[in-house]
Amino acid sequence: MLRRPGRENSSPRPHLLTRGRFTVSLQAHDVLVSPAPIEATLFGTLDKSFPRLSPEQLARVEKHGGRLAVASGAVLAEAGKPASYVYVVLSGIIDVVRRFAVKTDTPVVTLVAGMFTGEVSVLSGRPTLVEIRARTESEVVAVSRAELLALIHGDGELNEILMRAFILRRVDLVASGVGDAVVVGSPHCQGTLRVREFLTRNGHPYRFVDLDRDASAQELLDEFEVTLAEIPVVICRCEIVLRNPTNGAIAECLGFNDAIDATQLRDVIVVGGGPAGLAAGVYAASEGLDVLVLEPYAPGGQAGSSSRIENYLGFPLGISGQELADRAYNQAQKFGAQVMIGHRAARLICDHKPYQLELENGQRIASRAIIIATGAQYRRLPIESLDKFEGSGVYYAATFLESQLCANEEVIVVGAGNSAGQAAVFLAETARHVHMFIRSGGLSETMSRYLIRRIEDHPAITQHVHTEIVAIEGDGRIERVTCRDGLTGAISVHEVPHIFSMTGAVPSTEWLEECVVLDGRGFLKTGPDLSPDDLLGAGWPLPRDPGPLETSLPGVFAVGDVRAGSVKRAASAVGEGSIAVASVHRALVEL
User: Fold this and answer.
1) How many whole angstroms separate alpha carbon 548 and alpha carbon 583?
2) What are the structural domains, with CATH classification, of the chain?
3) Using CA atoms, how far apart are residues 312 and 436, in angstroms rounded to an integer?
4) Structure confidence at residue 16 as a pLDDT band (50, 70, 90)
5) How many CA atoms lie within 13 A of 309 on its CB side?
6) Are 369 and 556 in contact (CB under 8 A)?
């Protein structure tokens, strides 16, 4: 039975389609959503993406599964169903076939003896994106998801082979758009950018139909009875049409959280999937704790939108925030941590134990301990017309998608921290010119020296000190930006269509109400920062003082940017996330 995810700011109204009708629609719009047939050479590094296991390795795998005789034409895994098994081929030929958004079945790759199925979706139990079926009579070893995780944990050699293959396969699926989602929208639409970023940041492959460039796109809208006011549209698995959906509705439609049992009592829930939260998830799961990470948007948090982090230990050439987040996410799943995507914590219920988190949809999840890693958000510019341009001229991340929107045009980056510096350098690769608006007199006190040097040496970047934006004007897109000199009060007007706002930090703590003690700016106070009066007012019940990362509520910890006094760096957030797990163990004994 199909679910009925809702529309953003409106009642649910999915458009249900039979597979046959959708196939007819695609035949009428091949130029939009039916790409050229995918050859078996889709995967560029077949030796690593699809290695062949040796007889000795096959014997070790078989200890974790059972032999299965498969008839010719039998389907081992159906597209859109949970990825519950990995199949290792002992004999015969197994075809991996693309089913979604194409007129006929198209081969992705063919597997022979010694090769195995699966990609990262099997780690999380999400729906598989392809169909797997036998071309000939075959024999396979069927390894369940639980046994696969046991194999990965216990066999270092096979862990490396399997994890590398799973990750490379997902990378290639994303690059080629082999998936179960089609996004229809305009690059200049706020909602379209949000949806595309949500899918991209979550590593989910999709096809994009550009309404601004494709002359026949209107026929597609008419076929599905979609109005321009309902853009963007997400078509899930050729069966459900979502009109301007929320991120949560997309996650539900694509089965992001299907394998998660929300009624299960957890050892620890980590609220927030940025560097601190993912580190906590990795260490908690690797130490045997039952952990759930709750992330409303995508793994990586604010750091996940960084174009390149060059001062992170162990990466001398730098690493993008997206890549760092992907690696941490896969690592967490490998150890058995579950990550719930698209749902935000609305309230902490702290008046009884176990603690409960209430989600925005009213669902409650119980846990014996909680790690809060919700981070901080960039401050919104104090401009009256800001809402009109957010997502269509005003952005809070500088990823590949945004860089393509402002190619060969001028942009403004507001801010003086490392995130602003990384964005300026990255955008300068595609933009005609980058203007940095800095409220202070320079960058020396707020930005790493290597970034300052790069900005100073780049001919396409200009610094404007003591400068702030006071107004934005335009019809549909930004046409004029009015600025004020903070020293002289002089007003200037710039015809720049894109603004990247990366200034200040507002902690995401509004959902905590009066459960824990906050400082004057809304950040969580922990450990020695909690005064005797704080603890008295909070009713601290234990004979010991709170641990270094513990809040005024026993068994509830704060890590990363949301914690008062934290160092706003990805590496320090990762350190705090891992350290907090040691305190969780102690709290679980006490509680």
Assistant:
1) 9
2) 15-33+177-253 (3.40.30.10), 46-174 (2.60.120.10), 266-377+506-590 (3.50.50.60), 386-501 (3.50.50.60)
3) 24
4) very low
5) 22
6) yes
Residue that is written with structure tokens 């981070």 in the block: 375
Sheet architecture: strand order including 240-243: 15-16, 240-243, 233-236, 181-185, 207-210
C-alpha span between 168 and 120 (Å, rounded)? 9
Please answer whether residues 122 and 148 qualify as being in contact, where contact means their C-beta atoms are separated by less than 8 angstroms.
Answer: yes
Among candidate residues 130, 205, 204, 119, the one with its CA nearest the CA of residue 169: 119
Compute the 3-state secondary structure of the chain and give helix, strand, coil in percent, each to the nearest 5.
30, 25, 45
Looking at the DSSP bridge assignments, the partners of residue 271 are 294, 372
Of 440, 444, 446, give the one whose Cα is nearest residue 467. 440
Model pLDDT for residues 196-218, shown as the tens digit of each residue: 999 999 999 998 989 888 877 77
- pTM (two decimals): 0.88
Give the pLDDT score at 35: 31
Q: What is the pLDDT of residue 46?
A: 66
Q: Is the dihedral of CA 532, 534, 536, 541 positive or negative?
A: negative
Residue type, 121: S
**Which tokens hold the place of 224?**
């599905």
Q: Which of 473, 500, 483 is nearest to 406 (CA)?
A: 500
β-strand pairing of 480-485 with 467-473:
antiparallel
DSSP element (H, E) containing 269: strand 266-271
Distances (CA, A) of 76 to 120, 205, 258: 17, 22, 20
Whole-angstrom Cα distance, residue 242 to residue 249?
8
DSSP state of 180: S
Unique residue bearing structure tokens 């730098």 = 318
Is the link from the previous residue into 541 a cis peptide, with omega within 30 of 0? Answer: no
CB-CB contact of 43 with 109 (8 Å): yes
The overall average pLDDT reported for the chain is 88
Closest to 576 in 3D by CA, of 561, 588, 586, 589:
561
State the Cα torsion 302-307-310-311 to the nearest 10°. -10
Longest dimension (CA), the chain: 81
Task: For 146-192, give the DSSP string.
Answer: HHHHHHHHH-HHHHHHHHHHHHHHHHHHHHHT-SSEEEEE-TT-HHH
259 exposure class (CB count in 10 Å sphere: 0-12, 13-18, 19+) = middle
Bridge partners (DSSP) of residue 550 are 557
DSSP count for the chain of H helices, then E strands: 18, 29
DSSP 3-state of 411: strand
For residue 566, pLDDT over 60 is answered with: yes
Nearest Cα neighbor of 299 from 340, 240, 258, 254 is 340
- Which range, of 45-54, 101-110, 179-188, 450-459, averages the lowest pLDDT? 101-110
φ/ψ of 70, rounded to 5, equals -120, 125
Mark residue 408 as left, alpha or beta (left: phi above 0; alpha: psi -120 to 50; beta: remaining).
Answer: left
Cα-based distances in Å from 560 to 264, 315, 398, 546, 578: 26, 21, 21, 17, 11
Quickly state the pLDDT bin for 525 (edges 50, 70, 90): very high
Are residues 79 and 129 in contact, defined by beta-carbon separation less than 8 angstroms? yes
Whole-Å CA distances, 455 to 395, 407, 416, 421, 452: 20, 19, 11, 7, 5
Query: To 10 degrees, what angle do helices 570-590 and 275-286 make?
Result: 40
